[in-house]
Amino acid sequence: MQTCRHELLDRTLIWNQAHLLHALAEFESFYNEHWPHRALRSAAPLRPVPEPISGPDRLDLLNVHRRNRLGGTLHEYAHTA
Fold this sequence. Notes:
By secondary structure, this protein is of the alpha+beta class. It has two helices and two strands; from the N terminus they run ααββ.
């Protein structure tokens, strides 16, 4: 609950109940599917542990794509092929 409050509700002006429900659903999806959790070794609860980057030769192939969620309040990063 603290994470939701600090990362979403303290940074967002909520207009009405429909907007609140939409923002909370988006944050729940983001938190469970993307947010890295320390206790899960950087995995999200609904996503497996990511494969480690083991060699320096793979760093040259590392491309990162950023996706804004909730108008830029939340940022989702992913490796691209």
